[in-house]
Amino acid sequence: MMETINSTNILDGKKVSNYLLKNVSDEINKHIKNDSRLARPSMAIVLVGNNAASESYVRGKTKACESAGINYDVRSEE
Q: pLDDT at residue 39 above 80?
């Protein structure tokens, strides 16, 4: 996940992100498998107005939720 160039460590953010999302997904699945009373985690997002940066941020969060097996609901309010 890290590369050293001229005594400088360079972190590969994509590899770290994938590693963390995989671990979160595995933990969620393990807990749900061990206790059927547990529900899959969920995240609710409310977008207010039309802000391109906010919409991009939310797309990133929903993509991460999908990778980790987390339910999500996005609502837009004008």
A: yes
Can you read off the two tokens belonging to residue 16? 């770290």
Q: Look at the alpha carbons of 36, 42, 73, 57 in this order and tell me if their dihedral is positive or negative.
A: negative
Contacts 24+ apart (CB under 8 A), 36-41: 40/69, 40/70, 40/71, 41/70, 41/71
Note the pLDDT of residue 1: 73
Give the pLDDT confidence score for residue 6 in this predicted structure. 74
Q: What is the pTM of this model?
A: 0.75
Three state DSSP letters for the chain = CEEEECCEEEECHHHHHHHHHHHHHHHHHHHHHHCCCCCCCEEEEEEECCCHHHHHHHHHHHHHHHHHCCEEEEEEEC
Phi, then psi, of 36 in degrees rounded to 5: -65, -10
